[in-house]
Description:
Layout: H1 2-21, H2 23-27, H3 44-63, E1 76-77, H4 80-83, H5 99-122, H6 132-157, H7 179-196, H8 209-225, H9 231-247, H10 279-282, E2 298-302, H11 306-312, H12 320-324, E3 373-374, H13 376-379, E4 398-399, E5 434-435, E6 462-466, H14 467-480, H15 484-497, H16 511-522, H17 528-535, H18 537-546, H19 577-582
Antiparallel strand pairs: 1-3, 2-6, 4-5
Helix pairs in contact: 3-5, 5-6, 6-7, 6-8, 6-17, 7-8, 8-9, 8-14, 9-14, 14-15, 14-16, 17-18
Amino acid sequence: MKAKKYIQILALTATMGMVSCDDNAFLTEDARTVYTTENSYETVDQVKACITNLYVHIRYWYQIDSFLKGLGTDVMDTPYFRCTGNGYCNFSSWSSSYGSTKNIFDAMYQLANYANQALEGYNTESLTWDDETEKQEAYGEIMFFRGYAYLTLGELFGGVPLVDQFYEELKLDFTRSTRAETYEFAIADLKAAAENLPSYPSEAGRVAKGAAYHFLAEAYLALAIINNNNSSYLSQAIDYADQVMALHPLMTERFGTRATVGGGTTKNGIAAYYEDGDVFFDLFQEGNYDYSEGNTEALWTLENDYTVYHAYGGNNYVPTPRNMSPVLRDVRWSSAYTETSANGPWSGNIDTDLYPGGNVCAYVGGRGVANISPTSYVIEEVWEGDYADDIRNSAANIRRNFVCMDAQHSLYGETVPYEYLDYSSQTITEFFPIWTKVAPIDDWGYDDLEDGGNRSNMYCDQYACRSAETLLLRAEANLRAGNTSAAVEDINELRNRAQCSKLITSSDLSLQFILDERVRELYGEERRWVTLLRMGEDGIESINNHAMYIADQSFWGGYFTSSQDPISDWTLFPIPQAVIDSNTGATIEQNPGW
């Protein structure tokens, strides 16, 4: 006890001595447990953490928030029963402070900011990397994400301020670049990425040359469009797309976890093998997304794993079964076919041994709430004509025809024709097909059921981009360059994979046809707003011709007709008003139409 007392006295004396000798030193903040610009990059692992944050940040905008993928465009919107005609495509309600466009602007600048922070750490001279290849790849990743951010900003907002460093002091005098300068800045970064990234992902989920080449093709195509389809830029776009396809050819045969008779792992009592599947079906099955899993088409994937989510939470889950599935349990029979206590074919008296989960079983898309629904253009129009045998429209990939699940009804087990349903109320807008890529076809695709999951979320990986989209970029570049035969070959490569009996000819091809083909191949995957605004007037025309509340939606039996005005005076999103107002040291001009 005496020794302990002496130690305490000595410690107190030492403290008092420090105070009496240097009062200022005592009051100076020494943030040893807080990261500052001086201590944030003392180890290579801190730089790696910054790079990991780039992946974490962008995943949200692919998986959780669906606006970038096309809410309000020609492909999807909020269904009538949720908004009575006032969906995202009610552009009269948009402004320079509109939340969805502002959020995308902020998100892309945050991504660029994170990249600049990571670059600052990467350039710290005192850091020693044990592996030069790892160091090179890290630089490639940083440049990729900054290039990706500015490419997206250029496509959606036009010319924007170009920030190539992390500012420690407040800066309020940014100026806009031109749209061309924004694209050129992105191209320079993406080229640096391509030079430093490995040919294939070093780890599942990481970007590699294929992803960098893909967005270089997109960037040069975008640059060509604003320069009257400049032939040199189109040639560059085609060259980079060629390099993607050399590294990442399409998958053309069945593969992976559900393709082998007797193979795979049984989950939730469901055998892995799916007899009626095809190669397109296999592209969207858990365990098949990554290049390392045998998928040559994968360029950049977003990694999800249920065990990780179950342990740590976060946003590594995919809520599309909930958000993008219909609410079939609410759909009613027309009065002539109402026979039992159940109001509709999928609402009650269900054999749960045959349909586990009852009215929220996998067969009806799980526990869908239809926050998002496809337009008639996506449901019907793009499939009209010679698409009867297109595997992308097969029953395994789009569930269109549903049997009556009411075991007490005389039509039990039979397909329910649309005309048997009640089209007199808005509940009919809760009815639409189910894309298997966004909602598993059976319980094999739901990993959380044993822990009380209710078929709302998937936990499989997702595509940020795959080479099927690269082919469509190349087709567009070839068409704009006047090489229609090459564009036809690109489209027909996809149609051959889709096992279409009729291939297209030059007379079939147009920019709208390419937009149609993107729907058939990439619905629910592509960043549709980016595609349409990159195309300018042609993209706006497709919105005006097909958007849910601008064009009549024939699929829902005429229950509602168009009520919103088409876009007439803008081709770019507005620069957020808060950005304009806070930049007091210089003027940032608003985009036309806002």
